[in-house]
Amino acid sequence: MPSFKTFYRAAILLLLAASCNTTGSYQPLADATVKSEPSISSTDSASIAGVQPGTEEYGNIAENSFVGAGEHPLSTFSIDVDDAAYSNVRRFIASGLTPPAGAVRIEELINYFDYDYAPPQNEDPFAVYTEISDCPWNNKHRLVHIGLKGKNISTESLPPANLVFLIDVSGSMDEPNKLPLVQSSLKLLTGKLRAKDKVVIVVYAGAAGLVLPSTAGNDKTTINRAIDELKAGGSTAGAAGIQLAYNVARNNFLTEGNNRVILATDGDFNVGASSDDALVNLVEEERKSGVYLTVLGYGM
Q1: Are 175 and 182 in contact, with CB atoms under 8 Å apart?
Q2: Does residue 20 carry a pLDDT above 60?
Q3: What CATH number was assigned to the domain covering residues 159-297?
């Protein structure tokens, strides 16, 4: 059986001089101040395929200031891998638009690429790779690139999975690069499932509903049939969908397993609780129960 790559790849580009002037002193960027993120005009939004005017929101990104290594010798970062910003930025540029500052997440642009790192040796849980180069815009500074490569773990060695596919079937998903692509993606994942894995399908549009109850991973015909029958239409009651998905995940909880909700969507929720804070609080609270969330973005 082919190996399943559990690839914890975190590539951190330390922009030591990202906003330095030619004298090397720190000068904050104008966009780094704590102010409202520049919004995209209705005209610009409408020109981006699949984006409704005024529906995109991005958080403020405050640039890190310089600190003395003697006083602050420790730096920490997460080893999860996010790379969605690359496709999002590419979408704006391909549409002839400047991406909003909050959409440009440097670490996600870097993590988009596969650096072909060798896996760790012996009992080491991960391998570390570093590179140092000159800073192109200030020769008094250096750029440091750090990469982590986790172990490759075979599929059969993984714990059983309790997966809830939470699928956005609202009207905006009715495009070739959205719901049809979600269906193809989930079928590929279904093909990797084992008999000890369980799958549930929950959908949401104007309301949330259970499409497929907990089903063994080796019953691929039943799972794929449920995926094929999905249709798009309606508004986006994502908050209700997440609540239902978490409830189902807890009902089928595996004590020694991977309990996870996999959300496939093209954007923001517009029915029910939809603020960033409310959704973040929900996810953080549910994480305490041992049920985790993975979000897949489509339509970029």
Answers
A1: no
A2: no
A3: 3.40.50.410
